[in-house]
Amino acid sequence: MLNKVLDVIEKYVTAILFAAMCTIIMIQVIFRATGGSLAWTEELARYLFVWIIYLACGRAMATEKHLTVDILPLMLKGKVKIILHIISTILTLLFCSCLLYAGSIVLSNLMVRTQFSPANHINMIYLYAAPTFGTLLMALRCIGTIINSIQKLNDPDADAHVMKEVTE
To answer: Which pTM value belongs to this model?
Structure first.
C-alpha cells in the first residue's frame, strides 16, 4: 500500500510539476520573444525544478537507478552480495536520517522567521521543504529495500535470485 502511494507521488506528481514547469518556461519564452517580460516565471520554474529533483530522488532509490560504485558488488555473489547491499542501504538510511534531522531544524527556523521569495512572494518554507520531503521518500524506500533484501537473504534460493538479477 505504501509503495503504491509513493509511486503515485513520485511518478504522477513529478510529471505534473514537470509539465507545469515546461508550460511556465514556454510562457516566459513567448513573452520575451514578443518584447514583454514576466518576472515570476523564472523563479517559479526554478522552484518547481527543485521539487522535481527531490521527488525523483525517491524514485531513483525505489528503482535502484541512482549512482553507485559497483566494483565490489560485481565481484561478489550470493548471500554475501545481499549482505553488502543491506549494509550499504543501512548506511544510506543513516545519511537520510541526518538529512531529515538537519532539514527539520531548517524548517522549524523558517516557521519562526518567515521568508518570502522576491518575485512571487511565496513562503520559502515551501521551497526548503523539498529536500526534507525528498529525503523522507528516500528513507522510506531504503527501509523497503532493506526489508526486501532481508527476505531475499532468508530465501533458500537467494543465489538464484542474485544470478537472475545479474543476467537481467
So the answer is: 0.83
